[in-house]
Design a protein that fits this description.
Strands 1-3-2 form a three-stranded antiparallel sheet. The relative contact order is 0.06. The radius of gyration is 53 Å and the shape is rod-shaped. Helix content is about 70%, strand content about 10%. Among the domains are: about 15-120, 50s Ribosomal Protein L17, Chain: A; about 175-225. The protein is mainly α. Helix 1 (about 15-30) packs across helix 2 (about 40-55), helix 2 (about 40-55) runs antiparallel to helix 3 and helix 2 (about 40-55) crosses helix 4 (about 75-85).
């Protein structure tokens, strides 16, 4: 009877069996999932759960024990760094076995072994996805604003300097301050007064010029009459 004998022999020697499972555990933690036969998948769960409990413990002795099993140091260091966050408060059951059917050729049952992620990390991922979805429309609006600004700057560069001066001259006067408005009004009133004064002076000058011309004509006529009278005498 096989009482108190844990593990499967799988028709292999002890050295072959341990080397095979060491390789499989290293691949599992490196790629997060592997595909193998059903019997090997069930036995691999024991090895993976043991190493994850060592990683959650996290001390130097546990790290050395894990390095004695896993063949790559980088995989062990990565596992020890992320074990607390990734597996959270789960106590056991760190792997999942999914049956995939039979293998063509020998019809052996095939299964997929993958690491289970705790619910805390899933919530964090969903929060990140929601945050990304919320920031997407903001980024689109910012991109539109930047495109509009770029178009305006290009239009300013393409416009001639004369057009810019005309546009500046056509700006509404409502933006000016009240003090400037008062100054403009005073200047306009002074111009009107000066124009009216000039208009009044012109007819006076013309009226003065007319009698002077008449006086000169009278003098000329008197001179002509005096010459005639002198000739007659």
């Amino acid at each position: 009877m096989r009482h108190r004998k844990v593990g499967l022999k799988l028709n292999r020697t002890q050295s072959h069996r341990s080397a095979m499972f060491r390789n499989m555990v290293t691949s599992l933690f490196k790629h997060d999932r592997i595909r193998t036969t059903g019997a090997k998948a069930k036995e691999l769960r024991r090895w993976a759960d043991h190493i994850i409990t060592l990683a959650k413990r996290g001390d130097l002795h546990a790290r050395r024990q894990a390095l004695a099993i896993v063949r790559e140091k980088d995989v062990v260091h990565k596992l020890f760094e992320n074990a607390a966050e990734r597996f959270g408060e789960i106590s056991g059951g760190y792997t999942r076995v999914v049956k995939l059917g039979t293998r063509p050729g020998d019809a052996a049952p095939v299964a997929l072994v993958e690491l289970v992620v705790s619910q805390d990390t899933k919530k964090k991922k969903t929060k990140k996805k929601k945050a990304k979805a919320e920031t997407a429309p903001k980024k689109a609006a910012a991109a539109k604003k930047s495109a509009v600004k770029a178009k305006k700057s290009e239009e300013k560069k393409t416009t001639a300097p004369g057009d810019e001066e005309a546009a500046k001259a056509e700006k509404p006067a409502a933006k000016a301050s009240p003090e400037k408005k008062a100054e403009v009004k005073e200047k306009k009133a002074a111009k009107k007064k000066s124009a009216e004064a000039e208009g009044e002076e012109k007819p006076k000058k013309e009226a003065q010029a007319v009698p002077e011309e008449l006086a000169e004509a009278d003098k000329a006529e008197d001179a002509a009459d005096s010459e005639k009278t002198a000739k007659d005498e």
